[in-house]
SWIM-type domain-containing protein (Paenibacillus whitsoniae), 525 residues
Amino acid sequence: MLDVEIDWPLWNRRFRSYFDSTISSRGWKYYKEGRVRDLSTEGASLVKAMVAGSSSWYRVTLDMQSFQRSTCSCPYGLDCKHMAAVLFELAEQSGVEPGALRDGTIGAAKAEKRRSAAAGAAIARPQPSEPSEKWQAYFEQQYGQTRILSMFSVIEVCERAWRELHAEADSWPPVVRGLYDSQVALYIVQLCGKLAGDRANTYDYDYNAGYYVYRVLSHAQNQLEAALNGLDVEQAQASYPGHLKALAAMTAGLFENGPERYWKSRFACYKLVWSRFFIVTELADLERERLRAAAAAASESSAAQAWAVLGLAHLDMLVGEDENVWERIETSGVAIEPEDWLEDLSGFADGGDWDRLVKWLRWLLPEMRETGGSYLDQYLDLWEEAAHHRQLDREMNDIYVSMLPASYSHYAVYLLDKQDYLRWADLALLLRLLPDQLDAKAMKQVEQADASALLPIYHHAVETLIQGKNRTDYKQAVKYLKKMQAAYKKQRKNSRFQVYLEQLNHRYARYRAFQEELQKGKLIQ
């Protein structure tokens, strides 16, 4: 939807008073060549855009309420071809025929549009007794022709569409209401894809689409999940089989309805639907046939193939055919990505299906070692739960070690829980961590339980910092020497510390700044 209000019948008369035929034709040429980019709105009246000129880009700002305040950064500066081109683009994105603006025939075009709208008005508000096709026709009538000038408007349009369409069924019975709301949520996903696709070649899309599209799809997914969770699928199958089929068809169309770069977000909605509908054997069998055909027709390594393969794998997983899933993924060439599976694995943990969870975690392990990234914590959390319930302590330890250094934070906690302080210290030394890089609470715990475990860490830190050869590092080294002294004293081995200090002092006798810091710390005279 537009963020500015434009009186197009007024511009029908005004356009040719600002732009003579020569400027108008040049602006039209620029518009048709696609030179207008990054069209956006600001406030109630400003329209901004960039226009590619002969040798550089020009910034155009149109004030649609006070046009004499409009500007262009080109040498001409006012009423130029760049402004005309922006007006043509603005008309197109407002649903007005640009040629009608150029020719002064907007009135005729608008009249035709009103006639078309009147014909379309025959679609009445949705009713619970109607087939889904009528619901969807109503959705499309209300929002199918919406145009936007900025990616921000995607959120505004989609949130309003959900609000208004959702409210139509406030008084409906629960089952048909759940089916209706599910279709509204899927329509919002489709609408978001269409609106984002309309902005696909703009600067605004490249920089802002990810954030705004994610927000819309996340909201739609939440609404879809809520509708499905409240839906009695068996009763829906008995009373509304047509609506179930229509919902399955909408779900099947999710891949085509939107930019390919966001297909994973739409696939999450696909999984939600089939996680509830897989018990409807007839629909699930039809979906398998469709997916097999899609996988065979898709080019290798394409998003379409990945969707089809993952869709089949998801249906197999829902009926417990895990080995089929693994074989299907491994032979298809589709990348094994943690985000595709971890939510399902969390479901196994929630349901206490520990044996199945362990098998899946083992299957994912090679990929997690390579590309775990931001999903590593979730993966290791699941392993820790499974290891606890299935007494897999040794395997858990081996997994931590195999995934270092990424698994450090988990492994450190594991060793502390085991009170294995020496291995905890060895881990810190292996990763060359200084005391200030270690968790303060962990340091306190080790100090109280076995201060001797900290001594190798302090020794390593002192030697490392001295090699920095600057006063800041020397001061920090002295700080650690004092902590080391306290640890030795606690073990009644102060003489051993004195021997080490003398050796250190002798070895670095020529490091004058270090000697000064030792004196300031009252470690030497």
Summary: Strands lie at 36-42, 46-52, 57-63, 71-72. The chain has a mean pLDDT of 91.
